[in-house]
């Protein structure tokens, strides 16, 4: 009986300790947040006042990129030259933080200088200049190869005549299997196995022509590796019979790195 009382007392003690620790943790957390807010607004206030003073004698425009990561702003050099004509300084791009009340260097200065510039010239003015700069960048860099891993390419399929990626995939796969059969002796995938596949990697130019075509097959079942050449040569032939359309970057045709895959049964 005394043992049971001890166990009950121990459980109550542990529960109380967890409760108190939780309260302490919450109070510390609240205090930390308050300190961060105080520090954030203090720095922001200083930068805002400095921006208000600087805006009396100069106009600076910045590009804000979404945090925590973003694609590069490509047309910075071109935009700088364009804005110079109207005595506007291009300050470059900057990124804030996705952490609450984490102040990045000169964050509010850049924000308020840009706000001032937009109030003077209008947001549409800068939108037009940014697009003009991009047009020049694209024209001056025709051999630049865009890659969806690093560049924010427009979300559209590359198979001519298709409107969605699912439609593109269905047409490519259906067309492939109409032309090429599974070789005799090929071991089909088991239910719990990952898919095997054969992929074609290539460069797609601004006119929808492909180059640097490379094909690679990956098999989950080692017994199917003997069919590597068959699948790779089949896809290589098939890819050249299809018609493609260029990838676009903010509406402009660009040269890009692309691929398509055929999943094997």
What does this structure look like?
- The protein has 265 residues and is α/β, with parallel strands linked by helices.
- The chain is 46% helix and 19% strand.
- The chain is built from six helices and seven strands; from the N terminus they run αβαβααβαββαββ.
- It has helices at residues 2-54, 76-84, 107-121, 123-140, 165-179, 228-239; strands at 59-65, 88-95, 145-146, 196-204, 210-218, 247-249, 252-264.
- The radius of gyration is 29 Å and the shape is elongated.
- Residues 1-18 have low confidence and may be disordered.
Protein traits:
Fusion Protein Consisting Of Minor Coat Protein, Glycine Rich Linker, Tola, And A His Tag, Chain: A, Domain 2, 2 domains, 5-stranded mixed beta sheet, 19% strand, elongated, disordered N terminus
Short description:
The chain has helices at residues 2-54, 76-84, 107-121, 123-140, 165-179, 228-239, and strands at residues 59-65, 88-95, 145-146, 196-204, 210-218, 247-249, 252-264. Helix content is 46%, strand content 19%. The protein has six helices and seven strands, in the order αβαβααβαββαββ.
| Global Rg | 29 Å
Q: Distance between the terminal alpha carbons, to the nearest Å? A: 67 Å
How many β strands by DSSP? 7
Structural class: alpha/beta
Helix content: 40-55%
Number of domains: 2
Topology as H/E string? Answer: HEHEHHEHEEHEE
Number of discrete helical segments? 6
Sheet-strand content, in percent, reads: 15-25%
Rounded mean pLDDT is: 88
Biggest sheet overview: 5 strands, mixed
Shape: elongated
Unreliable stretches (pLDDT < 50, length at least 5) are 1-18
């Amino acid at each position: 009986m005394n043992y049971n009382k001890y166990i009950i007392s121990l459980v109550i003690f542990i529960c109380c300790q967890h409760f108190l620790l939780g309260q302490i943790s919450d109070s510390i957390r609240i205090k930390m947040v308050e300190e961060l807010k105080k520090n954030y607004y203090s720095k922001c206030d200083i930068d805002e006042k400095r921006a208000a003073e600087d805006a009396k004698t100069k106009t600076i425009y910045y590009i804000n990129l979404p945090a925590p990561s973003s694609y590069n702003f490509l047309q910075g050099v071109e935009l700088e030259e364009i804005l110079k004509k109207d005595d506007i300084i291009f300050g470059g791009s900057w990124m804030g933080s996705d952490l609450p009340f984490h102040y990045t260097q000169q964050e509010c200065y850049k924000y308020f200088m840009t706000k001032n510039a937009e109030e003077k010239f209008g947001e549409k003015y800068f939108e037009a200049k940014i697009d003009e700069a991009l047009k020049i960048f694209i024209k001056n860099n025709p051999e630049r190869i865009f890659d969806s891993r690093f560049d924010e390419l427009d979300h559209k399929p590359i198979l001519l005549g298709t409107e969605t990626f699912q439609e593109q995939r269905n047409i490519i796969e259906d067309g492939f299997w109409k032309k090429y059969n599974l070789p005799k002796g090929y071991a089909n995938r088991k239910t719990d196995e990952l898919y095997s596949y054969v992929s074609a990697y290539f460069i797609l130019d601004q006119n929808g022509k492909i180059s640097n075509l490379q094909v690679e097959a990956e098999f989950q079942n080692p017994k199917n590796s003997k069919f590597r050449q068959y699948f790779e040569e089949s896809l290589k032939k098939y890819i050249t019979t299809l018609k493609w359309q260029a990838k676009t970057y903010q509406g402009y045709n660009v040269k890009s790195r692309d691929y398509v895959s055929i999943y094997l049964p």
